[in-house]
Design brief:
4 helices, elongated, 77% helix, mainly alpha
Length: 99
């Protein structure tokens, strides 16, 4: 009888361990998503509000080089049209003018 209760307790502990691992995984994914959102917000903020035009130009050049290979879905690419597509001369979106 004692043996069954120990086996049952082990099974219950295993289930609890699985639940806690799942909860930890969910928490880590949420933190990863938050980091990505905040980093993206920083990059967009720098593109729109930086007083350092040289830095902004270099950042924009880097994004134009890296984003096309990183974005695989057409819908995602559309989200970055303002960065990836050439701008009409005179149009100001807070980004450095291409030379």
């Amino acid at each position: 009888m004692d043996r069954k209760s120990i086996a049952l307790r082990i099974a219950q502990l295993d289930e609890r361990k699985k639940a806690l691992k799942a909860r930890l995984g969910k928490q880590e994914r949420a933190q990863d998503t938050r980091r990505k959102v905040l980093l993206g917000a920083l990059v967009l903020h720098r593109l729109e509000n930086s007083n350092d035009l040289d830095f902004t130009r270099r950042l924009l050049d880097w994004l134009r080089k890296e984003l096309p290979g990183f974005l695989t879905r057409d819908g995602d690419k559309i989200l970055f049209d303002d960065i990836l597509l050439p701008r009409v001369q005179g149009e100001d979106r807070g980004q450095a003018q291409p030379e």
